[in-house]
């Protein structure tokens, strides 16, 4: 069921461009890193009893402002669509860009850039890392996924080709032998730890790229 024109307009306001039905999907930046930093502040004593101090220190990644930089780099490189991630994490952003574009997807979750520290802390706290606040990361639709990925990696930015769009409307997520459907966004996992959490205003789409060459 397609969203109403009002909902579709709002979704498209969050996406720079639109996906086409014949391109690769790239994710750049560490998903969940922004949410994890807030969790470390909120549950520091509990986490210190479970994890070494060095492990917790290595869990912190600077993310502020990175989404805009990555978005502009992708658009300047010829990407067709970019969404800056935020509330609801990776899965929310993936649903929004696909729904705004009216495309199907095939995504390999094992290829999504997510730090092992984030995975282990989320497992300890029973949180879903792919639904954790992800300011500082982006999802990109482009015809040249591997080339763009290599450009990000050369600058020290975690990135990977994680899947592709399809001609059908199915949106499938693969993790090993398990295949599931991409659902509408659920509440951000960060609310379970920080109920008063207020996300930063999302970077809106439809902006002219600022060349960062």
Structure description:
The protein is of the alpha+beta class and 213 residues long. The chain has one domain (12-192): Phosphoribosyl-aminoimidazole Synthetase, Chain A, domain 2 (Alpha-Beta Complex), CATH 3.90.650. 36% of the residues lie in helices and 18% in strands. It has eight helices and eight strands; from the N terminus they run H-E-E-H-H-H-H-E-H-E-H-E-H-E-E-E. It has helices at residues 5-13, 33-42, 44-50, 53-58, 66-76, 89-101, 116-125, 145-154; strands at 15-17, 24-28, 81-84, 104-108, 138-142, 159-166, 171-175, 178-181. Strand 7 and strand 8 form a beta hairpin. The relative contact order is 0.27. Mean pLDDT is 91; it is low at 208-213.
Record the SSE blueprint.
Layout: H1 5-13, E1 15-17, E2 24-28, H2 33-42, H3 44-50, H4 53-58, H5 66-76, E3 81-84, H6 89-101, E4 104-108, H7 116-125, E5 138-142, H8 145-154, E6 159-166, E7 171-175, E8 178-181
Parallel strand pairs: 4-7
Antiparallel strand pairs: 1-3, 2-5, 2-6, 3-5, 4-6, 7-8
Strand content: 15-25%
Radius of gyration: 17 Å
Structural class: alpha+beta
What CATH calls the topology is: Phosphoribosyl-aminoimidazole Synthetase, Chain A, domain 2
The largest beta-sheet arranges its strands as 1-3-5-2-6-4-7-8
Which runs of at least 5 residues are low in confidence (pLDDT < 50)? 208-213
Mean pLDDT metric: 91
Taken together, the total number of domains comes to: 1
Biggest pleated sheet:
8 strands, mixed
Q: Report helical residue fraction.
A: 25-40%
């Amino acid at each position: 069921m397609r969203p109403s024109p009002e909902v579709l307009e709002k979704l498209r306001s969050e996406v720079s461009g639109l996906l086409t039905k014949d391109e690769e999907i790239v994710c750049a930046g560490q998903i969940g890193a922004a949410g994890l930093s807030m969790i470390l502040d909120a549950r520091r004593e509990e986490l210190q009893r479970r994890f070494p101090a060095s492990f917790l220190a290595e869990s912190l990644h600077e993310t502020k402002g990175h989404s805009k930089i990555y978005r502009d780099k992708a658009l300047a490189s010829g990407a067709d669509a970019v969404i800056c991630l935020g509330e609801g994490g990776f899965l929310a952003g993936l649903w929004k860009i696909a729904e705004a574009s009216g495309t199907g997807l095939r995504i390999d979750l094992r290829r999504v850039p997510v730090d092992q520290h984030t995975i282990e802390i989320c497992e300890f706290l029973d949180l879903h890392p792919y639904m954790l606040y992800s300011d500082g990361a982006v999802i990109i639709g482009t015809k040249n996924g591997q080339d763009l990925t290599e450009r990000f990696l050369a600058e020290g930015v975690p990135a990977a080709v994680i899947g592709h769009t399809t001609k059908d409307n199915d949106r499938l997520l693969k993790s090993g032998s398990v295949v599931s459907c991409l659902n509408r966004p659920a509440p951000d996992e960060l609310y379970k730890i920080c109920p008063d959490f207020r996300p930063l205003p999302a970077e809106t789409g439809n902006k002219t790229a600022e060349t960062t060459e």
